[in-house]
Amino acid sequence: MIQDNGSMYFAKENRFDTDMTLYYIPVIPLYTILHRKETEKAGLLLLSVYAYLYQILKIPYYRNEGCYLNNLYEILEEWAENDGAGKRTFRQIEDAKLIGDYIQELIGNPEHLKCFGKRVRTFKTKSAFDRSSLLLAERFYAIYRKYRKTPIDRNYHPMIYREEIEDGRAVMLDDYVSFCASAKGELFNVLFQTANDELQEYSSIDEPVIFASYHITEKPPDNFDFETDVFGRLNDLIILWQETHF
Description:
The strands form three sheets. This protein has a two-stranded antiparallel sheet with strand order 1-2. By secondary structure, the chain is mainly alpha-helical. It has helices at 28-34, 40-55, 68-83, 87-107, 110-114, 116-122, 128-147, 173-176, 185-199, 225-242, and strands at residues 2-4, 7-9, 11-15, 23-26, 177-180, 209-213. The radius of gyration is 20 Å and the shape is globular.
């Protein structure tokens, strides 16, 4: 039952299936390739991709207070201190902070979004990684050109505001879509497993929703083409980093 502008009508709830996937986008690999001569240009190309994800899609960033992964990293740091973790773990935690802050400032710079198209058009591939990076950048740029200022939550209607939830909480968008420090290593493995175990405790998940009204005067509902493109490309980006040594 939908109540809108003083009227009430029945509607069908169409949900976009996110496949119960954690879309955690690492920033340390981007930092790494930006500081290597042989991958610097690919780094600038992907920097524009990240600027789009951050500035337009408005994907949550793990260094911001209130972000789910920010809280989780703080918990893991406390665990490490209490358990007397090794130097490697503390180094990964420190890198997550320092590099995370550095990359956040970079991808928040509007200039890297303005030159997105130019970087895509002028990029010359010299390796398999270059080719994969260019293909991914081209696909993200196509989404950017088609949808321009559309954020990832355009069809996001949190359950907490529209229905009762049995356990009082649903898995929210920023729980499973977020920037993170790295997609490899001991710290990430613990982070991923902790998030996965915790989020599985909840019976409901907030996913993009379109309400298809049964009212004959209503316009036909939008489709999930945007969500299909965005979540598909986010998955490709994560796979790109998982399959490389950066």
